[in-house]
Amino acid sequence: MISVYDRFLAREDRRPLKVAWAVALVLHFALFLMVFPELGAIQVEERIQEAIVIKRYKPPEPPKQQPEKKIVKKKTARVPIPDPTPDEPEPIVEEAVEYIETEVERADTEFFISGPPSGPPVIDQGPMQVGGEIQAPTKLVNVVPEYPELARRARLEGYVILEATIDREGNVVNVNVLRGLGLGLDEAARTAVSEWKYTPTTYNGRPVEIKMNITVVFEIQ
User: Fold this and answer.
1) Long-range contacts: 8-12, Cβ < 8 Å, 24+?
2) Half-sphere exposure of residue 164: CA atoms within 13 angstroms, side-chain side
3) Which partner for 203 in 1, 126, 208, 218 could form a disulfide, CB atoms 3.0-4.6 Å apart?
4) Residue 121 within a domain
5) Bridge partners of residue 98, in order along the sequence
6) Which domain holds residue 186?
7) Considering the entire predicted model, what is its pTM?
8) Considering the domain boundaries, does residue 179 fall inside one?
9) CATH number of the domain within which 149 lies
């Protein structure tokens, strides 16, 4: 049998062997690190993180609106246009007729007056044109022309120029239309002026026939 003392000696003999093994392992490990140093280094991985710049979105400014150009419309004068076939009757309005008696001397008619006549009286050579010493007579009787219904519905306005012959007694014996409007206005003016009455016109102290222009204005009020 192995005594306790022998076991103790056996354990004491093993200690140098264990120490030798430990030293050998340390030397081998140190040699291993010297040969392969990169295996013992700690690798550090660098991660580069890209920075993301976030900008606040600013919407573009709307385009500036140019000021609108104002178009100035010129007012045009209303010219009455006759409508011979009106569709609907218009309300009855009051009519106004104005008369303008003008003294117009024709370019192809000339008068030469040189003082009082001597010798026999002047022979009558027809109606004399008002102008110069031949003054327009004064109207004694006035007849208002009627406004024709067709012209009134068409709202036709304007003036009619007439040439009237007045005898020695002041009666209107002949009427001619120099400028008319139509739609019955010419005949209405001619009929009314034919019934007018004037004072007799004298020349060198004696009554004479005369011609004068009369303007009749038709206007709807």
Assistant:
1) none
2) 31
3) 208
4) no
5) 217
6) 95-112+126-220
7) 0.45
8) yes
9) 3.30.2420.10
**What residue ranges in 27-106 does DSSP mark as E strands?**
95-102
Number of domains comprising the chain: 1
Do the domain assignments include residue 175? yes
Look at residue 154 and tell me whether its pLDDT is greater than 60: yes
pLDDT for 9-68, tens place per residue?
555 555 666 677 777 787 877 776 665 555 443 333 334 344 444 455 566 777 777 766
Q: What is the pLDDT of residue 52?
A: 46
User: What mean pLDDT, rounded, does the chain reach?
Assistant: 70
Q: What letter represents residue 76's amino acid?
A: T
| Cβ-based neighbours of 216, under 8 Å, separated by 6 or more | 97, 98, 99, 100, 145, 159, 160, 162, 189, 192, 193
Q: How many residues does the chain have?
A: 221
From 122, 115, 138, 120, select the one nearest 206 (Cα to Cα).
Answer: 122
CA–CA distance, 25 with 29 (Å, rounded to integer): 6
> What single DSSP character describes residue 131?
B
- Residue 177 forms part of a structural domain: yes
